[in-house]
Design goal:
It contains 3 helices and 10 strands. It is of the alpha+beta class. An 8-stranded antiparallel barrel has the order 1-3-4-5-6-8-9-10. It is globular.
C-alpha cells in the first residue's frame, strides 16, 4: 500500500510538472506572436527558424512556353532561416486545389541579402534570396519527369520521379536560366501577429527575377513551425 501511495504521488508530481511546462511553452508562444519586429536586427532575429504555408496557396504564373497566358499555380511553401543570413526554401507544386496531386518540388539554398525598408508597412524590409548553394528539382510523378525531360539541355541528366537533381548554375531554358547564372529573387519580408509575409505575386505572373520586379503588396502569410 505504501509503494502504491508513493507511485500515485510521483504520477501527480509528473503530471503537474508537464502541465506547467506546457503552459509555459504556450505562454512563450503567445507572447512571441504579439511581437512586431521593426528594426532590421529585430526582423533578422525574429525570422530565424522554420515557416510554412497554412494551406494550399494559389498564385498567378506566367506560361513558360511564351504563350502570354497566365496560369494558376497551386503550391505549398516551407522556408528555414538560419544564422549567418542563410536560407533554405522549398516550394511544392500541385495539380489541384487541395494538394492531392503532387507535381514537382523545388529546393532553393543560399544567402540572404538585406536591403532598405520597404514602404508597404512599418517593419517591412527588402530582401534578396541568392540561390548560390543549391537549386534542387524533384519531379513527384512520372508525368512531371517526362515534362522536364522534354528538350533537356546539355549537362543536365534525365529526371526521374521522386529523385532530386541539383541544377545550380546549369542552363535550363524552361526556367529561363542560363549556364553559370546565379538566380536571385528580389522580395520583401514582414512580420505581424506571429505570421511571416512575403511579397504578393504580380497579377500578370511576372517573377521577382529583377530588382524592378520587386513586389509592392503582401502575400498570404506563412506560420511559424513549432
Amino acid at each position: 500500500m505504501r509503494y502504491s501511495t508513493i507511485y500515485k504521488s510521483l504520477v501527480i508530481i509528473l503530471i503537474t510538472v508537464l502541465a506547467s511546462h506546457t503552459e509555459a511553452q504556450e505562454r512563450k508562444k503567445a507572447m512571441h506572436m504579439l511581437e512586431t519586429p521593426k528594426t532590421l536586427e529585430e526582423v533578422k532575429k525574429y525570422a530565424l527558424g522554420e515557416w510554412e504555408s497554412i494551406s494550399i496557396e494559389l498564385r498567378p504564373t506566367e506560361d513558360r512556353t511564351g504563350s502570354g497566358n497566365i496560369l494558376p499555380t497551386y503550391l505549398r511553401r516551407h522556408f528555414k532561416y538560419s544564422e549567418g543570413d542563410k536560407f533554405v526554401g522549398t516550394i511544392t507544386l500541385f495539380g489541384d486545389n487541395y494538394g492531392q496531386i503532387p507535381l514537382m518540388e523545388f529546393e532553393f539554398k543560399g544567402d540572404l541579402k538585406w536591403g532598405e525598408e520597404h514602404p508597404i508597412a512599418v517593419g517591412a524590409w527588402k530582401i534578396d534570396y541568392i540561390l548560390n548553394e543549391g537549386f534542387g528539382v524533384t519531379p513527384l510523378n512520372d508525368q512531371a519527369a517526362a515534362m522536364l525531360n522534354q528538350a533537356l539541355p546539355p549537362g543536365v541528366s534525365a529526371f526521374e520521379a521522386n529523385v532530386k537533381q541539383d541544377i545550380l548554375q546549369k542552363a535550363f531554358p524552361m526556367f529561363n536560366i542560363e549556364e553559370g547564372q546565379i538566380v536571385s529573387d528580389y522580395d520583401l519580408i514582414y512580420f505581424r501577429n506571429g505570421m511571416l509575409f512575403m511579397g504578393a505575386k504580380h497579377v500578370d505572373g511576372t517573377p521577382f527575377d529583377m530588382v524592378e520586379n520587386r513586389p509592392h503588396q503582401l502575400q498570404i502569410p506563412l506560420a511559424r513551425k513549432y
